[in-house]
Design goal:
Radius of gyration: 18 Å
Strand order of the largest sheet: 3-2-1-4-5-6-7
Order of helices and strands: EHEHEHEHEHEHHE
Number of domains: 1
CATH architecture: 3-Layer(aba) Sandwich
Number of strands: 7
Distance between the termini: 38 Å
Shape: globular
Helix content: 25-40%
CATH topology: Rossmann fold
CATH class: Alpha Beta
Largest sheet: 7 strands, parallel
């Protein structure tokens, strides 16, 4: 049980691994976790983006270049010397955004693999190691589209989030399943579901769409990566030891109306 006589959100002494840490939300979470004391390892395919993320962070923070859709990266991660205490499965996204019916079966498989299968493989790799030390935090980054559907008026003319929506629902299902399996190990697993984030490239070059999305959000704006730091730090902290199998929605109120 965590003591209430100390800062329960201080991550000093813990190592966090953040996938998709090269840009956008991943970059924001790398910096946020480091600012709260964690040693952070970033993972992404784009070395240039990782260099930019870690340019203001010195040792022992570091990054690993690799593709989560290849066996090679998991073999590499299995051999790292650090004890990973906090796993943030942030890599994902919608690599084949098209109207439903135009996405191919292979595109559905690709979307599911990067959003769900990669997260499951990392959980399978690191949870036993966390369990051996009787402490760990898994944070799966889903989306509000992991809980609801997508209004056709809220997407680009030639876009659509069918595969993405199904995959993010699957990621929440993975969280719920694993929460039932590891509840007494000292390791917790939760989902964080962001709303609209404006660092993403506007679909089909439609800036008016993002203005429309902001108008659909009760707080009147879209989010920035920094809006998710405190929620992530909370789920990664000692203070969240009784938060388990939860989907924490941070969306500016998007899903309440």
């Amino acid at each position: 049980m965590a003591s209430n006589k100390k800062n329960l959100f201080d991550l000093t002494g813990h190592t966090a691994l953040v996938t998709g840490g090269g840009y956008g939300l991943g970059r924001g979470l790398v910096h946020g976790l480091a600012a709260h004391g964690a040693t952070v390892i970033g993972v992404a395919r784009n070395e240039k983006a990782l260099k930019e993320t870690f340019s203001s962070l010195g040792a022992p923070h570091r990054y690993i270049v690799g593709d989560l859709m290849t066996d090679e990266l998991y073999e590499k991660l299995d051999k790292i010397p650090e004890h990973v205490d906090i796993l943030v499965n942030n890599a994902g996204g919608d690599p084949h955004s098209k109207p439903w019916g135009q996405q191919t079966t292979q595109e559905w498989r690709d979307t599911y693999e990067i959003n769900v299968i990669a997260s499951e493989r990392l959980c399978r790799l690191f949870i036993p190691k966390m369990t051996a030390r009787k402490w760990g935090r898994i944070i799966n980054i889903s989306s509000i589209y992991g809980s609801i559907g997508q209004n056709p008026e809220n997407t680009g003319k030639n876009a659509g989030a069918g595969a993405y929506t199904a995959a993010k629902h699957g990621l929440i299902g993975l969280t719920n399943y694993l929460a039932c399996q590891i509840g007494r190990t000292g390791v917790t697993i939760n989902t964080l579901s962001p709303g609209m984030i404006t660092w993403m490239e506007t679909p089909d070059g439609e800036p008016d769409l993002w203005k429309h999305l902001a108008s659909q959000t009760p707080v009147g704006r879209n989010s920035q990566p920094e809006d998710y730091v405190t929620a992530t730090v909370f789920l990664a902290s000692e203070g969240s030891s009784f938060v388990h199998g939860t989907n924490l929605i941070v969306d500016g109120g998007w899903s309440v109306w």
